[in-house]
Amino acid sequence: MDRRQRRHSGGTVVAVGLMVGLGVGCATGCAGSGAAAEDARDAGDPVAVLHRAADLLREAGTSKASTSMEMATGGTRVTIRGKGVYDYRRQLGRLTVQLPQDPAGTAEHRPITELLAPGALFMKNRGAGVPADKWVRVETATLSDGNLVTGGATDPYAAAELLRGTRTASFVGRTEVGGAAVRHFRGTADLGAAARTASAGNREALEAAAKGFATARVPFDVYLDDQGRIRKLRQHFSFVNGQQKTAVAVASTTLLYDFGASADVRLPRSKDIYAGRIAENQPEN
What we know:
The chain has helices at about 30-45, 45-50, 55-60, 155-160, 190-195, 200-210; strands spanning about 60-75, 75-85, 90-100, 110-115, 120-125, 135-140, 165-175, 180-190, 215-225, 230-240, 245-255.
């Protein structure tokens, strides 16, 4: 793998812009501020609503997920995309993560299969000298970003639990995501606060991220459907580059859809997990 995939992970980072254009000046006859105020009242207290978002995903059970992670590195914007399923009650997910083409234009890397579990990340087709039929296991609490960035995809449930640390939030307006009517909220979460109220499976990883990121503040945009379930979540992380010790802006976007979809995620057997040394900076094509 290339340099974007160091630190025992599938790469680094992502995404998609979330811009919602809201209405603008009319001379007469607009619903305007009255309708907006009514929508805001219907949306409820934004901070309280977002603190409950992860719990409502657990109630939903399962969904399909698409992820995107983007950052600028060496003057080039790098995007990593993933797609799969997630079981929120078991906190287990499976994503197929596609790394971008090398700047030199060589063939794309083979997709990496990632299994997400409480406290652990499993990767297949990791490259770096790992046999093709073996999995690499990484303890997420040992990563300075808690695997919010390292794996090239943010664990959907960890992303939702980060909203438990919402400090400030406002209701932006109503729109649609994937054909579903949603409420758009914008705010800032605190990693330390999220870690203190997170589930046992994510607590240590979020604590590591609170210490390892350049700042514990995470600006976000989130879109909730009428059941309060997250449909789209975009979060901005400030990640410290291990080589240059400089902060890198990383944007992670998660899309959730097809709630109730089958999500049979099975973790690797011990004999299928690679126990050898992982080479650094060795690409997998």
